[in-house]
Amino acid sequence: MKAKKLWMWLLAATAAATIIGLPCYLKYRKVSLRNECLNNLRQIDGPTTCCVPLANRLAVGDKMDPKVVAQYIKGNTIPRCPCGPEYEYSWIVGSPPPKCPYHGALLETNTVLDWASASHSSEAPPRNSAPK
Ligand SMILES: [Zn+2]
Question: Whole-angstrom Cα distance, residue 78 to residue 118?
């Protein structure tokens, strides 16, 4: 009888911890996936703005081969968004940076991150504040 009561308390405590912790975990997972996507966009943006045009003597408006771009990325493949969709990119030198249909473009994603962090604090810390 005592063991059954203890078992019920343990079950209730586990259920409560799950209910409290699940939204936190889902939020963490959402931020984690967005950051992974952001990192993938940076991996594509780096070689397409610098290495590939310089190494292949491409001018603005020339078409890049995604296979050549993939050579500059770890794993030798064009990464995909961890949420599934392929990135939208024209593979033309000088075109806007690659964009995720789910998370947005690189600059848009940075802006969203800045706004997200700014919304948590009511006021920005003073610039010349000494550490305490
Ligand atoms: Zn994405």
Answer: 32
